[in-house]
Amino acid sequence: MEFIHIKDFRKIYDDNVAVLNNFNLDVRENEFVVLLGPSGCGKSTLLRMIAGLENITAGDLYIAGKRVNDARPRERNIAMVFQNYALYPHMNVYDNIAFGLRRMKMSEGEMQRRVEDASGLLGISEFHRKRPDQLSGGQQQRVAIARAIVKTPQVFLFDEPLSNLDAKLRNSLRGEIKKLHIKLNTTTIYVTHDQLEAMTLADRIVLMRNGKIEQAGTPDEIYNKPESMFTAGFIGTPQINFFPVEIQGEGNRPVAVGDGLRMPLPPESFNLNIGQKVVIGIRPSHIEMVGRNDGGAVATRVDMLENMGEETLVSFTLGSTPGVFLVLSDRAPNRSEEIFIRFMPNKLHVFVHDSSVSLRRKIG
Ligand SMILES: Nc1ncnc2c1ncn2[C@@H]1O[C@H](COP(=O)(O)OP(=O)(O)O)[C@@H](O)[C@H]1O
Ligand SMILES: [Mg+2]
Fold first, then answer.
1. For residue 191, which atom of ligand 1 is closest to its CA?
2. Which of 34, 103, 116, 286 would give a disulfide with 344, using CB separation of 3.0 to 4.6 Å?
3. Quick one: which ligand is closest to 43's CA?
4. In testing the pocket of ligand 1, which one of 16, 19, 210 has its CB within 8 Å of the most ligand atoms?
């Protein structure tokens, strides 16, 4: 059942430009939805409209079956965690966490129990007497998350909560946010521009572009069945390779012909027309080195090698189009070596050139 129902949202700021228009989204109870997209696409605006921090120009917002367009933030039973922690600098950690509860006029005993439970979950009990400026960024963000948890809200909203942290802390706190959700199961909407955060945390990713939903689906669907070049390019590192080609026929078999590229395509896989211009997408882990005479082999030369430990990233060029693939480091070729590569046929994506929309596979 949908728990948050966003219907025909429209948002216009003072400058009269619509940031969101006809935006619809349902979030199920207990679901962890990640809003992903480039900076400026409207993620924070949407989150703040749900929280009640921005007014809703037009449309309806239902939470747990109740229309809450006009409810004040406090009445929505939502807790939000921001990128910049937003702690009260003059209060110690305990008082920061307890702040929302004090306003709810809760008994001291219940309040203490809740603050201690949340602090225990986030490993910050020892900091209760410290002020925020005596803590590291990661510790401050734990305090902000604890402050959200103690209120036992019906919805958690996170707006890029890890963006101010260094890479190592980001990874560990990301894991903790995931564990918290497994434990508390609170319906969550999480905003990020980081595709790895989205992939690792989400039950469902909602990829946004210019105030619209580009594609929504499980991480597996978004990664393996991108419906557009935008989606394919936004998800996955190293980034997917794109090669523009024209479809030619060889007998009744389609062949992709591009700059420095001639490759038979699996005839049954895509609805292709002779003469059609398309873009082939292939992820770096779906290109393999093969022998000169193997089927589908394409000749190229190694431009650059980047050793990443277990794997090495190999750069090459087909005609004038650059590409990369991953190979186990102990099988890596040498720089400038002439090599033959093959795109794994069942991992190919084909995008229609003009519209950048993916052709769905007929099979598989
Ligand atoms: N208070 C505001 N007044 C006017 N324009 C705004 C305001 N907040 C955001 N915007 C504009 O709305 C668009 C979406 O912004 P935002 O929701 O912050 O995007 P995101 O969080 O995805 O980076 C941007 O073009 C931004 O400049
Ligand atoms: Mg934002």
1. 21
2. 286
3. 1
4. 19
Lining residues, ligand 1, CB within 6 Å: 13, 15, 19, 37, 39-45
On whether both 249 and 229 belong to a single domain, the answer is no
Q: Which of 104, 151, 97 is nearest to 125 (CA)?
A: 97
Report the Cα 194 to chain-centroid distance in Å.
Answer: 6
pLDDT value, residue 1: 66
Domain for residue 131, yes or no? yes
The domain tally of the chain equals 2
Q: Please name the residues in contact with 189: beta carbons below 8 A apart, sequence gap of 6 or more.
A: 4, 27, 33, 34, 35, 47, 50, 155, 156, 157, 158
In a domain, 294, yes or no: yes
Q: Could you tell me the distance, in angstroms and rounded to a whole number, from the CA of residue 109 to the centre of ligand 2?
A: 37
| CB distance 30 to 64 below 8 Å | no
Give the closest residue (by CA) to ligand 1 atom 6.
13
Q: Is residue 177 part of a domain?
A: yes
The CA 280 to ligand 2 mean position distance, Å, reads: 32
CA of 140 to the centre of ligand 2 (A): 20
What is residue 364's predicted lDDT score, i.e. its pLDDT? 41
Residues 44 and 138 placed together within one structural domain of the fold: yes
Ligand showing the shortest atom-to-Cα distance for residue 48 = 1
pTM for the model: 0.93
CATH of the domain at 20: 3.40.50.300
Is residue 363 in some structural domain?
no
Tell me the average confidence (pLDDT) per consecutive run of 10 residues in the chain, 364 residues long.
93 92 97 97 98 97 97 94 92 95 88 95 94 94 94 95 90 94 96 97 97 97 95 96 94 90 85 91 97 93 98 97 98 97 94 75 53
Domain span including residue 269: 241-352
Question: Where does a domain end: 208, 234, 260?
Answer: 234
* Residue with CA at minimum distance from ligand 1 atom 25: 40
Please give the distance, rounded to the nearest whole angstrom, from the Cα atom of residue 127 to the centre of ligand 2. Answer: 29
Give me ligand 2 centre to Cα 314, in Å. Answer: 34
Sheet containing 298-307, strands listed edge to edge, beginning at the edge strand earlier in sequence: 287-290, 338-343, 298-307, 311-318, 321-328
**What values do phi and psi take at 39, rounded to 5?**
-55, 135
